[in-house]
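Sharing a chain and its predicted structure for anyone who wants a worked example. Both blocks are below, sequence first, tokens second.
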Amino acid sequence: MKKVLAILTVMILAGCASTDPYTGQQKTSSTAKGAGIGAVAGAVVGAATSSSKDRAKGAAIGAAAGGAIGGGVGYYMDRQEAALRAKLEGTGVRVAREGDNIRLIMPSAITFDVNRHEVRPEFYQTLESVAVVLKEYDKTNVRIVGHTDSTGSDSLNQTLSERRAASVGELLISHGIPSGRVWTSGMGERYPIASNDNEAGRQANRRVEIELVPTGN
């Protein structure tokens, strides 16, 4: 039984391995991870509910069903990630994958003028491209979070981060994203991703992030 489970899991993961077009490295997608977990769970249930002589067959059937269910959300987010990477290539927006969530990291240098919360007009087209993908993949909630560096007062940074996130949210809504899917907030200077002791670090910390979270529907 253990051998059957091991073989099934390896086969599923191998089948879902792909080459990252940006790094050239082999990687296992979230689809494969979800499918592998689902397959193992399904195999255990299938074997447990079968007679002793049919346990291998029951495990195989259970693995197939569990793999399909487990890979569903991952597959959906894999497709959405690929569509976003294609749309955002060369824009300066970084696409990061964290489990079943997708994070779009937009540096303020390309989105806002200094100490301003209005989105630069030249960035409108990029956000419109994001909206096109979000409309196609509508089973995700959109969390928009603003961040600043440590320059200036805490209250000013908090307000600026909130307004920048709201500006991005308003533009996405204007391009047809339902307001019920969009949630905005500001974190001020509380979550830096680089040192605030130099200009390069401060520039990295000034950013807006859009996190796409599957709704589970």
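Comments welcome. The first strand starts at residue 17 and ends at 19.
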